[in-house]
Each structure stands twice: as C-alpha cells, then as structure tokens.
UniProtKB/TrEMBL annotation:
This is Clavaminate synthase-like protein. Pfam families: 2OG-FeII_Oxy (PF03171), DIOX_N (PF14226). InterPro entries: DIOX_N (IPR026992), IPNS-like_FE2OG_OXY (IPR044861), IPNS-like_sf (IPR027443), Iron_ascorbate_oxido_reductase (IPR050231). Residues 29-126 form the Non-haem dioxygenase N-terminal domain. It comes from Lentinus tigrinus ALCF2SS1-6.
Amino acid sequence: MPVPVPELGQYNYVQETKENLDWADLVTLDFSKYGTPEGKKELAEELIKAVRDYGFFYVKNFNITQERVNRQFSLGKQFYELPLEEKLKYVPDGLDNGAFNGYVPAGRRILDPASGLRDHTEIYNIPKFDGFFTHNHPDVIQNHLDEIKEFASLHKEVLDPLHILLAIALELPEDYFTNIHRYERKSEDHFRYMKYSKYTPEENEKLGRLWGGGHTDLGSWTLLFRQPVAALQIKLPKTGEWKWVKPQDGTLTVNACDALSFLTGGYVKSTIHRVAAPPKDQEHVDRLGILYFSRPNNDVKLATVAESPLLQREGYTQNEFEKSGNPVPTMEGKTHSFYISWQWTFAKQKWQRTKNVARGDVSHKTAQILPGFREKVYD
C-alpha cells in the first residue's frame, strides 16, 4: 500500500518586530521588468550596483507563489519536530571532513567559553536533483520529495535570470554564467531548512546578543526566503557598518558569495553577514529559515574572467589565488601540483564544520583554507 502523505497544516509566521532597527537600504530587483531588452538592461545596472555597494539585495515577482513558500516552511517545521534520535540518523558520513548534505545537529560550536554555552543551530541540507546524488530522507521529507524537487524550479526562475543580468553588466555573452551553472551538471547546490532555536534573555545577554559571527558564503548566490524574525545583519562593504536586513513581503533576500568574487577578481563583493539575537519582542520564538545555495559546476576553475571588458577596464584581473601565485582551484574538483589536490568547496566546508571551536579563537578565524586563501576576522 502507498505510504499516506501527512497534511502539512498552516505555517504561522510570527509578527514583525516593532523595534526601530537600523535597517540596510537595499536595492530591490523587480523581475517583472525582465521580459524586455530595456528591462534587462535596467535590472543589470541595478544588480551591479547592489553587488558592489551592498552584496545583498531583494528580488520580487520571481514567479513562485507565497503558498508554495509557506508549504516549504511547514515542511521544515515538521522536520524539526522529529525526535532528535530520528534526525541523527541522517547526519552525513564525513561531516567533520566537509560533507554537508543531510542533518547537522546543534551544539558543535562553543559560543560562550566561560559558561560552555553552545550554539542552537540545526541544519538539514538537500542536494539538488541532477542525478549525481542519492536522496535518503526521513518520511516527512521523502513523502514530499517531488514537491521539493519542483520547488527547485527557483534555479530557472531566479538564478538563471541573475546569471544573465550579471553577464550583461560585465559585458559578457548573456549565457556566460548560465553555462557554468547548468542544473543538469554536477555541482554542490543545495536546499536547506535551518532552525535557530531560541535562547533565554539571560543567555542572549551572555552572548552579547550575537548568535553567529561574521562570515561569507562559499558559492555564487544564496537565496533566503522571507521570514519575519529579524536576525540577519550585513557589514556594508564601503563603510564597515553593521545593518539589519528587513524581511520584505513577497521578496527573496539574495547575497553574492565567494565564487563570484573569485570569478570577478573581487569586483563582485562576497558580503560579510552574521546572525544576531532577534529584538526583544521576538526573542521568545525560534527562527526557521528556508535557503537555497547556488554554486558553479564542480569543474569550473575559479579564475578571474579574462573575457570581461569591464573587468579589464576597471583593473579587476586577479583574485587571491592568482595574486599569490598558488594553483587556482576548481569549484570542487582537483588541481594537481606536486601530487597535492585542492578542493575549494570541501576545504571551506571542513573549516565551517570544525567541531568544538570556541568563539574568539583567532587561529580558526584566520585559518588557511587553501594555499593562497586565508579566512579573515569579521567582527
């Protein structure tokens, strides 16, 4: 007999904060303008300003209904309601060495060394449906896998347009970035349900009201679906100020990431961001996030795009690897030199997943990820 599919129920969003926070004034790309050459040109100009000035921006009218988004939040909620022993069955082999698809339990990081208080962050990553990955999930996910796969149409609805707009802005053929982000080719794209369980008011004060330190993402773009618990903050590239990112109705929040910064010699900013404790009128609730992480195909070499007239004119011709004289890695695959292999994705994932690191450990925050690239302290 077929397995019955449980009802998802209604997902109830918390009320937005009434506190007057210092919000970032981000650009909003309206994809309803995408259908004409003039609209594309205007959006390309807005996009390049966004990724140069902020690294973060909003997208609206991206052809995915709020009902479909709500169902994903309901799925994420049901997953996190599973008993811990059930979720632990899906921890990936090799988690400590950079594996990331599956369940990552909370408590791997020490946020307050004095008291031993650990993080409350849980992650469930689902790899893309390109035929290269196995899909073994708990029933609540497995029973809705076709729906989750369909939801990944956001690659077509959001990522392909962003790649075309970026190519236009950099004076490249329109298909330049779509060709290196083909959905059907192997890459480490993944979909994520992410839960930040609440801390007590006393614990939040002990943490300096900061849940996660400043960092950048390793791929091309990160897509964050709107949920109203304010916690995301970005560090403005030009001023170094920290600003809150306001949850905007009917939008995706998007940020540019490390791979695009490498490919453009630093012209596109991989923006530093962090997760703060929510304002006091929201700190009594958990924060559930729905995200998609886009990455170049695994065989793409992370060298500066030499074909861009704009990058050549502006002098953005070398990234960190090229300036250092070290081998330029591919996104996941291997670059061989003296029988040493470099893998960008898994090297950085291994660093991110390091267990029992205490907040403030500078040796971790400035660790060498690959020859030619060290992390930086982002406070």
